[in-house]
Design goal:
This protein is an alpha/beta fold. It has a domain of 143 residues: TIM Barrel, CATH 3.20.20.70. Helix content is 32%, strand content 13%. Helix 8 packs across helix 10.
Length: 340
């Protein structure tokens, strides 16, 4: 089955929903029952977060977002029109399937036949040869999602070995410089120091990092696991941005009990470096804004899908400098539930 995020469906003229921020990337989910058992994912084997309120067993959720399905020809026709609209990229999320990536590669050929937009793919691969197949199919970027930062937590929440996944990602980054991406989820039993140290390694290898805040989803094994504190997420966002822009180095930072205590900059320098609020916008591949993927309606904004207002920028920077308070950082308007 092929699903679209609700916001994407609206942009393609396939569904009408209210959006205060439209996606700049078309988000597609090429799905089937996933063989992975990630404790945080509705698509995972054994999780019950999928379905239209559990009806018909349709797996139409990923993160907080609902993904309606459409006939393939309607979807392809919508993508053919997309280049003339506001969409700038196509991102296809796959799952670990018994058939491997054969069907996904065939679908990519169909997409490339109707659209000239750059294409990114995030799916399960185990060997460099599999990644090569996607690049041979004219995919611009491939993501190998690490998700969980702490090795023990990785084994607990995703199974398998974080070290092996990281080595595969780094090997691919050496083979295809500037064309690899990954996902990192903050809030899954890691410390800020562990996350920032890994970010430094990934950025140094030229890997694009999409930061996510853990979001509990009903029906998954981690439905009752708390989201990370906003001030923690803000420090990680700031560190990611500052290292990416080469404004600070990991060696200049100081940690206490795993928490980032100093960036090695004065408050004035830090304010100047974070001016504009770009650090707190959605990170990842170019032109990816993932509207409200992490956010609950009316709740705090972890990733802003648009430029920040002056008030939002001030609150976000203050969270970084003073430790902040999640209750003080109020979102601008209300999030439309899961429209991505």
């Amino acid at each position: 089955m092929i699903y679209l995020s609700q916001g994407t469906a609206s942009c393609l003229g396939l569904k009408k929903i209210r959006m205060d921020v439209a996606p700049t990337t078309a988000y597609l989910l090429y799905s089937g029952r996933c063989l992975m058992s990630c404790a945080f994912c509705p698509q995972a084997r054994g999780n019950g977060g999928q379905g239209n309120n559990g009806k018909n067993g349709e797996m139409n959720r990923l993160g907080r977002v609902t993904w309606p399905s459409f006939p393939r020809q309607e979807l392809l026709a919508g993508l053919q029109r997309a280049a003339a609209g506001g969409l700038k990229r196509i991102c296809i999320q796959g799952v670990k399937s018994p058939a491997g990536n054969k069907d996904l590669l065939q679908f990519i050929d169909q997409v490339k036949a109707v659209s000239t937009l750059p294409l990114c793919v995030s799916t399960w691969v185990e060997r460099e040869e599999e990644v090569a197949q996607f690049f041979q199919a004219s995919v611009e970027r491939v993501s190998i999602a690490l998700d969980v930062v702490n090795p023990q937590a990785y084994t607990r929440f995703k199974k398998g070995s974080l070290q092996r996944r990281r080595e595969l990602l780094l090997n691919c980054a050496r083979l295809w410089p500037g064309r690899m991406s990954t996902h990192i989820i903050v809030g899954l039993a890691e410390t800020e120091e562990e996350t920032i140290t890994l970010l430094d390694k990934l950025l140094g290898a030229g890997i694009s990092v999409a930061l996510f805040a853990f979001t509990p989803v009903k029906g998954t094994a981690l439905a009752n696991h708390p989201a990370p504190r906003l001030e923690t997420y803000r420090r990680v966002q700031a560190a990611h941005f500052l290292m990416q822009k080469q404004l600070v180095s990991l060696s200049a930072m100081r940690f206490q009990d795993g928490r980032l205590h100093s960036f090695g900059l004065s408050n004035g320098q830090l304010q100047e470096c974070l001016k504009g609020g770009e650090a707190f916008q959605t990170s990842g591949c170019p032109d990816c804004n993932r509207p409200y993927y992490n956010e609950r309606p009316g709740g705090a904004m972890y990733n802003y899908p648009r430029p920040l207002t002056a008030e939002e920028e001030k609150a976000a920077v203050q969270s970084v400098i003073a430790g902040g308070d999640a209750g003080k950082e109020v979102p601008h308007g209300r999030a439309v539930a899961g429209h991505l």
